[in-house]
Amino acid sequence: MKVVTVIGARPQFIKAAVVGRELRKKHKEVLVHTGQHYDYNMSEQFFEELDIPRPDYNMGISGGSHAQMTGKMMMAVETILKKEMPDWLLVYGDTNSTLAAALAAAKLHMNICHVEAGARTNSFTNPEEINRICTDHISTLLLASTKSGMVSMAAEGLSDRGQLVGDPMYDAFLKYSQNQEMRNSIVSLSDGIVYKIPPEYYYLTCHREENTNEDNNLLEIFKAMEQLDAPTIYPVHPRNKERALRLQTDYHFKNILLTEPVGYLESLWLVNHAKKIVTDSGGLQREAFFACKKCVTILDFVCWPETMVDGRNELAKPDAEDILNKMEKKQWIDENYLPFGNGKSAVKIIAAMENTK
Ligand code: UD1
Ligand code: UDP
């Protein structure tokens, strides 16, 4: 098979690392980077750390409105697809890069394999929901990470194209959590000073459009973290950098350490050693679950219902009191409950494409 893989954002590099490695054992992969994430620590660092081959194409498209970004990407992907004429287009998740590539391929009547199919928030205020639904409805093969994805597909009449394969983020978590190098220091975002990672800390990430469009949500999250019994480490997504620095200065938050975005291996280390995790990231919610860390998610919708059991992951409003209350609630771990597969989803993803004519 010849497979064109289109990726563009941080979480897609991680999934493509584990799936691409498996794919290249028997097949040809043409790797296309849309350019959606472009800073060294949002993109190239992942390629280096995870040994992802250099992209065959980098389209260099980022920023602008959703329509501008998606439209420009569609045009550029179409040219590449027409040249490469692959057996499959392979896309991951729910970003504008995912939707653009899928739309371009569908109009060329090409086979599309969508990994992380069926994930739903049932909220159209969440921009990624539109990308997920549209990509699923035009794809040939819908590969779900969890059973809830299969249920959503059934509700939308998509079951005949769906298969349950597990979550490649879990494959990556298992692989890269082994023999992790000890992390001691972290660089402050505000002054570049290198700090020692405290023996106990909370891990925060917050980057969703819903939480970063104005000050209030982040301010409430900071007010909550400031009151905790250990410092918080927060690697700040570039879209939020100016706001996070300004709020920290204006409100004199002393218990929150802002840093540049960290690489995947460092993020995984921070997950595995944190006291608890607060996030609005789809990936981090799952990693908290894999690492058995209590997680509080600052969103008003559930995307990974499998994590929301036994107090392990709870939604909180962007309100300091609600966040603190949810963080205090106890969790119970059932070690036999493994809803994200067995760490072999990459193999199943390749087999699904091989077995679909
Ligand atoms: C995107 C995805 C989101 C995913 C996230 C992963 C969409 C609609 N959203 O959100 O689903 O959770 O990636 O992190 O596709 N920027 C930089 N440097 C970079 C990347 C971004 O400065 O390397 C800035 C740009 O100003 C850009 C803004 O951040 O306009 C937002 O980036 P964008 O890719 O549009 O959305 P994300 O928030 O990253
Ligand atoms: N991550 C990272 N560096 C950071 C913050 C997060 O490597 O500074 C990792 C995190 O561990 C997870 C993935 O990025 O593996 C999640 O990506 P993100 O939160 O950007 O997107 P989402 O999963 O919400 O789409």
First and last CA, distance: 11 Å
Q: Radius of gyration over alpha carbons?
A: 20 Å
* Oligomer state of the chains in this structure: single chain
Taking strands numbered 1, 2, ... along the chain, how are they ordered across the largest sheet? Answer: 3-2-1-4-5-6-7
Helical region count?
14
Structural class: alpha/beta
Q: Shape from CA axes?
A: globular
Strand content: 15-25%
The small-molecule ligands in this entry are: uridine-diphosphate-N-acetylglucosamine, uridine-5'-diphosphate
Unreliable spans are none
Description:
A seven-stranded parallel beta sheet has the order 3-2-1-4-5-6-7, sandwiched between helices. Strands 12-11-10-13-14-15 form a six-stranded parallel beta sheet, sandwiched between helices. The longest helix is centred in the N-terminal third of the chain and has 19 residues, at 66-84. The protein has helices at 10-23, 44-49, 66-84, 96-107, 127-138, 147-155, 168-177, 209-212, 215-226, 241-251, 264-273, 282-290, 320-328, 345-354, and strands at 2-7, 28-33, 57-58, 88-92, 112-115, 141-144, 162-164, 185-187, 194-196, 202-205, 232-235, 256-259, 277-279, 295-297, 313-315. By secondary structure, the protein is α/β, with parallel strands linked by helices.
Relevant terms:
357 residues; seven-stranded parallel sheet; 14 helices; 15 strands; binds uridine-diphosphate-N-acetylglucosamine; binds uridine-5'-diphosphate
Which helices and strands, and how do they pair?
Blueprint (H helix, E strand, L loop, with lengths): L1 E6 L2 H14 L4 E6 L10 H6 L7 E2 L7 H19 L3 E5 L3 H12 L4 E4 L11 H12 L2 E4 L2 H9 L6 E3 L3 H10 L7 E3 L6 E3 L5 E4 L3 H4 L2 H12 L5 E4 L5 H11 L4 E4 L4 H10 L3 E3 L2 H9 L4 E3 L15 E3 L4 H9 L16 H10 L3
Parallel strand pairs: 1-2, 1-4, 2-3, 4-5, 5-6, 6-7, 10-11, 10-13, 11-12, 13-14, 14-15
Antiparallel strand pairs: 8-9
Helix pairs in contact: 1-7, 1-14, 3-4, 4-5, 9-10, 9-13
The structure holds uridine-diphosphate-N-acetylglucosamine (UD1) and uridine-5'-diphosphate.
Uridine-diphosphate-N-acetylglucosamine binds next to helix 1 and helix 5.
